[in-house]
Protein: CLUMA_CG015073, isoform A
Amino acid sequence: MTSFIIEEVDTSDIPENELSEFVETTDIPIVAETQEEGMLTDEMPSENDFSDDSVDDKDFKLKDEPSTSNSNKVTKILKSTRKPSVIPDKSQSNLLRKFMNNEISYNDYVRKMGTLDDLDDISDLSEDSNDSPMEKIKKHGKRHAAKAETHHAKKTKRALPPALQGLMGQANLCFARGDVALAEKLCLEIIRQEPMTAEPYLTLSQIYENTEEEKYNQLLLIAAHVNSTVFQWSQVAEIFLEKGNLKQASICYAKATRCDPKDLSLRIKRLEILKRLGDEKHVLHCTFCMLGFIPKDQHEFLIERAKWVVQEYHKDGQITKSLDAMLKAYSKVPEHFSTQDVHSLIDLLIKDKQYRKCLNVFIFHTGMNVSIKQTGKNSYEFSNIYIPDNMLMDLRTKMCICLIKLEASNLFEYLIDNVLKFIDVDNEGDCYLDIPEALMLLEQYTFALRLLNPLVQSETFSLAAVWLRHADCLRALKRYPEAIESYKSVVQLSKHLEARLTLAALLKQEGRMEEALEALTQDPAVEVLETELLKEKCLLLKELNRVDEYLQEGYKMMLRSSDCDLRKNRNQEVDDIDAPQFSKGDNEPTVADDWNLFLDLVNTAWTNIRYVQLQRLSFAAMSSRRLQSHIREIDFIGTIACLYNKEETYGYNKIREFFNTDREKPRFWILFNLIIYHTQDSRFNRFVMRLFEKVSPFTTKVPPIVYMLLANYCLLSNSYKHALNHYDEIYRRFQQPLVAMILAILYALIANQKHSNRKQNLIVQAINYMERYKQTREPEAEAEILYNTGRLYHQIGIISVAKQYYEKALAVKNPFIEKHKELLDLRMEIAYNLHVIYKQCGNRAMARKILYDNIVI
Structure:
């Protein structure tokens, strides 16, 4: 409701620039209520009132002839408060004024309005998510009716005020006479005063039709928007269609459909345009929305479109959408559904778990009947069932499934008898396999077996899937011997993974270990290996302590993620080019599981002295992409395996890899020394020499053992002088007792040479270094010191002194040595050397006594 305030003032009290806001009158006119702010007069302006010099492009003013009355009173009409519409007219008016004054672009106008380019149709079945599809359809129709009534009530054509009606007529007359500029200015003035009417936009669109196509299109859309009617939108859509603008025509037909949702022709026209655009998504959505508005008398068209929508949604796996589409048609014309259509509807209802509604379809179309009493929200009580003898086989099966899903347990016996009576197992047994599956889900295994027993005995349907369900039922009923035989039938027919695992578990439970192993055994020559079966077999072999087989199967497990190219890059032997193929299942062991299995395999190989298998396992794990996070530990284990398996070549290559990353740890150098001790390869000397070229000797953190290697190599090569120089430098730097002892032995070796000079001085040097060894060695190693000193004197030929040291060494009593005899006791070595001295002196009795007293085998 719009109200106005009428105010009379004297013209002498008003500034000249504000007089245009007033109307000069003698009598205050009574005028009709208007919807927009504007100028009202009691007379229509004549054609002479509008001349070229009286109209400005930016600000239009209406000139009125002065009244013949002498009264100098004027009336100011002020607009007061008004109730807003659904979308505030003031906001729309301001946006339209800004657009027409080029203050904002058309895109900004559309974005702020947020409605003109909306392609979506009226949403169907999106609300009331808890309602059933049929209830949604009923509510949907009511909502459309309400929306349509409200829409037509709110979107009535907006009339121009009387003064502006004349101005609009003048604009149309000017355009008809060819005065386009004046017509344009008059339309702009009308829009300035009354922007929410369609007439000036339509006239402007005609003005721009042949000159500015973009403005023409924009003005047509604005005209349709401010006067949203089916006729207006359809008219604009036809214009766009003629010009080949299919997308804009589709938008306009969507708007027209919103004005009158029940107009089927509008929807069909829009669908044709969307098909030409290739917009399959919107074609499907609009066809789905259209189903609710197709009348019953067009039932063939309704069902045909519904089936097409069902098919398209079913391709995308949208079962609920497919069902809603089918129910839209079924709720209107159930009597026109063919048998095939009924089958499709029942399938969709079962997939959507709407079993109760499915029973209603059966009752309507097949003649079956059953008394249903609801006992809870989702629970029912069934009685007095009647199933016609002529019911189709497929429908009979699905009807039984619905009743089973609804837990009609008191009817199970009757249903099974009915199925066995009317369905021939030998010819139609595959039709009712879903029934025992439904029973098994309810743990009704005894009833399920009644249907499965005839199937497994049938020559036609004695299939792996049937045997598997048969075996599962027997296992659930704890009839294990029978279940084992059924699972064996499954394995013979299909090598089913779960069946083999279950069969092995049952055989193991029954104590039939060999049969369990046979069930888990796979032939890599004829089948792709299943990781789960191989893992279970490994665990069973370990439990049975069958070491060699356990290591062999574990080796296969390590190979499943092995990369041959990676092994070649790491200079590893590739002796399994034809490695078995593995399937990629969902229950793949985790990396932690693989790592724990590898550690157990390593420990088993180590404790059972299977060094060859230990090396192969290590090399397989090195190339495993799954175990690359543990590659450092695996490399170390592989090096140890090479050492014990006497594969010095691979061990030497592995230890060099450690040196490239960490050369400061003594254990790597100890391993290196152990490896080169067993090999005749002299490459290690060149490697150490290159290493010395990269670092400054005796100044880095490299341990003394590194420098000992060079000296040892010279000693083993009989280059005593070079070895002497190296050992002497090492002793001066590190003062180690071991180096002092080696120097003493080295001087003794040189003194014993045939052509050596100054032997006496060399012996003195040997004794001197041995004394240093005795001084720097720990007192707890007294027996070792005496033994090594005696060996030195024994070597240089001073037998009497050597004898004294050996005897002193035998007399040493050390509790710590007694506690660790297997590692520290030198009694046998000392006694043997002492007996050699007595034997050389001819005292065989004493030599024999020494052996009897100290060497026990």
